[in-house]
Amino acid sequence: MFDKAKEGYVNLMPAHHKHSKNPGDSKEMMQSRRAFLESGHYQKLQQQLANTVQQSIANSIANPLENSQQPTILDIGCGEGYYTNEIANVLGESAQVYGLDIAKVAVRYASKRYANCHFSVASSYKLPFNDHSLDAIVKVYAPSKQEELLRCLKPGGVLVTVTPGARHLYQLRERIYQEVRLHEEQADEFAGLELIEQAKLNYSMQLVEGQAFELLQMTPFAWKASPELQAELKQCASFDCEADFNIQTYRVI
Ligand SMILES: C[S@@+](CC[C@H](N)C(=O)[O-])C[C@H]1O[C@@H](n2cnc3c(N)ncnc32)[C@H](O)[C@@H]1O
């Protein structure tokens, strides 16, 4: 038996399974990400992702929406639930939407804010779901274990991933690295799944009043930025930066 926290989430991470006291993203990273996401610069991704999930479930042989059965969707490494919530909004009451993250602070925030989803503190390396119980798994910049994805997806179920496109955050990265290496565009391969659709989303963001600093703080290269650059971005009135995402849909073979 697991207790439900007062915010409504369940903690499925036994203390002895944790490698650190507070695994996953820190409170500071979570807060920067939250502040940045609130600014709406990733809203296009949020909407396109939710529509992709809806479409892929509608087309899925596992469980089309017309079926009377409720489709079940899991967002792994969901952070504070920004995408999870939109997926639940778009699918409406026809679906059960779950979000899971190893960082308790993020899950606590998500479950306080989004009552339309079920959240848990757990690891994406050991998913707390039955074999072949999920119609879709969503993975936005989050780690995963292939065997677990395959174990939990229903036959014909789908995996929707978001990965950085070649030019993602180019203007920020060129301020940090002498030579910017473009991200690899090759879609990841997952054993037992076939890639059925790939979409690109590229647009320019005008970051105002310190938003460039919040964006920096939520990236893995934050610690590479010099204190001078950090101070400059904090003060920066306007900074133009590209967002470039790849959205891939895979289906269980
Ligand atoms: C880059 S963030 C992305 C968060 C969210 N999907 C988004 O895009 O806003 C990666 C997330 O994965 C979580 N994470 C890291 N290792 C994990 C694991 N083993 N199991 C579940 N979540 C994990 C982190 O705590 C963090 O919230």
Please explain how this structure is put together.
The protein is of the alpha/beta class and about 250 residues long. It contains 8 helices and 8 strands. It has an 8-stranded mixed sheet with strand order 1-4-3-2-5-6-8-7. Helix 1 packs across helix 7 and helix 2 packs across helix 3. It is globular and about 50 Å long. The mean pLDDT is about 90. The structure holds S-adenosylmethionine. InterPro entries: 23S_rRNA_MeTrnsfrase_RlmA, Methyltranfer_dom, RlmA_N, rRNA_m1G-MeTrfase_A_prd, SAM-dependent_MTases_sf. Pfam families: Methyltransf_31 (PF13847), Zn_ribbon_RlmA (PF21302). One of its GO terms (molecular function) is methyltransferase activity. It comes from Vibrio halioticoli NBRC 102217.
Rg result: 18 Å
**Nearest-integer average pLDDT:** 91
Shape by Cα distribution: globular
* Gross CATH architecture of the domain at 25-60 and 69-168 and 181-204 and 243-252: 3-Layer(aba) Sandwich
- What is the CATH homology-level superfamily of the domain at 25-60 and 69-168 and 181-204 and 243-252? Vaccinia Virus protein VP39
Say how many strands there are.
8
- Residue share in helix: 25-40%
The small molecules bound here are: S-adenosylmethionine
Instruction: State the separation between the terminal residues, measured CA to CA.
Output: 35 Å
Helix/strand-derived category reads alpha/beta
What is the N-to-C succession of helices and strands? EHHEHEHEEHEHEHHE
- Helices, by number, come to 8
Largest sheet: 8 strands, mixed
Q: If strands are numbered along the chain, what order do they take across the biggest sheet?
A: 1-4-3-2-5-6-8-7
How would you describe the oligomerization state of the chains in this entry? Answer: single chain
Low-pLDDT segments: none
In CATH, the topology of the domain at 25-60 and 69-168 and 181-204 and 243-252 is named Rossmann fold
The proportion of residues in beta strands is: 25-35%
CATH class of the domain at 25-60 and 69-168 and 181-204 and 243-252: Alpha Beta
InterPro entries: 23S_rRNA_MeTrnsfrase_RlmA, Methyltranfer_dom, RlmA_N, rRNA_m1G-MeTrfase_A_prd, SAM-dependent_MTases_sf
Domain Methyltransferase: 72-184
Keywords: Methyltransferase, S-adenosyl-L-methionine, Transferase
Binding site for S-adenosyl-L-methionine: 42, 80-81, 168
